[in-house]
Amino acid sequence: MKKISRASWNAIAPSGPYSRISSPRGVKIHYTGGPVPADIAGPTKHRLCVQHVHHIQQMHMSGGRGETYIDIGYNLICCPHGYTFIGRGVHHLPAANGPGLNSGHYAVLGLVGSSGFTKPNSALLHALRDAIEYLREEGGAGNEIKGHRDGYSTSCPGDDLYAWAKRGAPRPDEPLEKPIKITYEDGIPLWPGRVIRLADPYMQGNDVKTWQYKLRKRGWTIDVDGIYGPKSKAVCASYQDKVGAKPTGVIDEETWDLTWSWKPPAA
Length: 267
Known about the structure:
Lysozyme-like; 29% helix
């Protein structure tokens, strides 16, 4: 699972203690029920996913659903870039399934709306399947896979996601990680759309490997393994210091661009 921890998406701390969920029968799938940007699945648009998750959390905690929640109402949130955001996490009672229904199932949101981005892509379906398996393995979820509308009067999770859930939430035929061709010297590769930082577990993927490769080409000692661990963070901070950026060890859009565009001053 391509997990984004609460710290990595800068989640607001819950306003109160979670209640424990015991022996849930399975997972219920949700959608936002509102507009989602039509271009949110674009290769450089992952920041929109982060913004949308923040918006949902703020709305839930401010009473925007008619009830003030202590946190975002979902246990996990999945985005169309294949990532899974930790919401309430495992063993914590959700608040999104409806009155009297939260103890029966975990709640997992897919970032699909009733307008804009309305049909799940393969990366989102992979992330939702990852979330289901994670909640079974780590959270003791049973085998049921249902939609929010099962047992509650709502259009959620939309017709497409509901039909997918009713089929048993199968993985798409298209693999989550497509092989990519990287050109390292012909300009700056597209910003991956996510801030890369040390996380638990470590962030990993082709974007991490691309960045590591370029730093090695620039003469830094770094493993090109696609895993953003402590050594990569230390190299990042050193590089940032060299090029005049704040040495945070976090690969944001500025650091990504400087990795390719920075040139040493003329002697």
